[in-house]
Amino acid sequence: MRRRVIALTVAALLAVGGCAEPRSGSLGPAPTAAPPAAATPPGTAGTPAPSGAGPGPTGPSGPGAATTPATAGPTAAPTGTVTIELWYVRDGRIAPTRRTRPATPTTSRLALTELAAGPAAAERAAGLATLVPAGTEVTRIADGTAVLGALSATGGPAAVRLREAQVVWTLTQFPTVRRVRFGTGGPADRGDYADLLPPIVVTAPVIGARVTSPVTVTGTADVFEATVSVRVLDAGGREIATTFTTATCGTGCRGDYRASVSYRLDREQAGTVEVYEVSPEDGSRTKVVAVPVRLAPRR
Predict the structure, then answer these.
(1) Could you give the CA distance from residue 59 to residue 44 in angstroms, rounded to a whole number?
(2) Quick check: is 51 in a domain?
(3) Would you tell me how many other CB atoms lie within 10 Å of the CB of residue 255?
(4) What crossing angle do the helices spanning 157-171 and 107-117 adopt, rounded to 10°?
(5) pLDDT over 90 (residue 5)
(6) Is residue 69 part of a domain?
(7) Which helix (H) or strand (E) holds 81?
(8) Exposed, middle or buried by CB within 10 Å (0-12, 13-18, 19+), for 279?
């Protein structure tokens, strides 16, 4: 009996030791070659919602299937306000940012109004745009499906899909919306537009944010061996900090990542947070997402 108890205890310890967490690199020069992948399971961090449901739904399952970024959905900001996520267009793909606005019971209308209004000046300078026309509205929400009229066909099929993706990814952050139907078409969820995500999505920080050291950088990525690199540049474009981490899935699937990077500065200034993949072929930075920010001083 005692031998059996000892054997079971050893087996349990071995099982625990076999679970690997995503690793994070220390500060220092960015890697010139992609570090080995951590043994992490495919999928996204946290608890994903069902496909097409609310914040952060996932696409089809199975080997190599992409998972879609988890989003916090509308969040309570200071009293009387709400923070919503908006998906704009950049370089033929969709990319997120956020707005804090006075609270309203019709958050879907607020979100579509903000989509149609387009990006702020700093976001436009960073390449964000909108294809959603003014007057786009939800006619009703029933059984988790938001119904809209058919969107403008201006620009051809590719532009229509981008418009639809903007609307679907924005509206499905709300818990009452899992799918969106345009005109007489069938309902669509986030998984139907997952191919319009760039290889690296940055959900924080957003363009124009004031950040302090250490900067927390989050998002999703489908990159070589799941390795995501981050660096901070000062106003003169000089690299002042760098780190790397691994997403929960990579090389053919999309996973969540989270990294923290510290910097030192004597004064507040404009800066940039870059998130990228290190090319396995020549060590160059590829799939770069540059996020202009304000860097708070840190001595």
Answers:
(1) 11
(2) no
(3) 25
(4) 140
(5) no
(6) no
(7) strand 81-90
(8) middle
Q: Which of 158, 145, 189 is nearest to 89 (CA)?
A: 158
Do residue 187 and residue 235 come from a single domain?
no
- φ/ψ of residue 122, rounded to 5: -65, -35
252 and 230 both lie in a single domain: yes
Query: In the prediction, which pLDDT does 43 show?
Result: 34
Q: Are 233 and 268 in the same domain?
A: yes
Domain span at residue 135? 75-196
Place of tokens 């786009």: 136
Residues 87-101 as b or e (16 or more Cβ within 10 Å = b): bbbeeebbbbbbbeb
Q: Which two tokens stand for residue 63?
A: 């080997």
Hey, is 148 helix, strand or coil?
A: strand
166 plus 277 within the same structural domain = no
In a domain, 8, yes or no: no
Integer-rounded Cα radius of gyration of the chain: 21
At residue 10, the 3 state secondary structure works out as: helix
End-to-end CA distance of the chain: 61
Are 213 and 191 contained in the same domain? no
Q: Does 158 map to a domain? A: yes
Amino acid (one-letter) located at 10: V
pLDDT for position 1 = 45
Tally the domains of the chain. Answer: 2
Last residue of a domain, one of 180, 196, 212: 196
> Quick check: helix, strand or coil at residue 3?
helix
Q: Give yes or no: residues 103 and 208 share one domain.
A: no
Query: pLDDT of 229-250, one tens digit each?
Result: 999 999 999 999 999 999 999 8
Spatial separation of the C-alpha atoms in residues 179 and 192, rounded to whole Å? 10
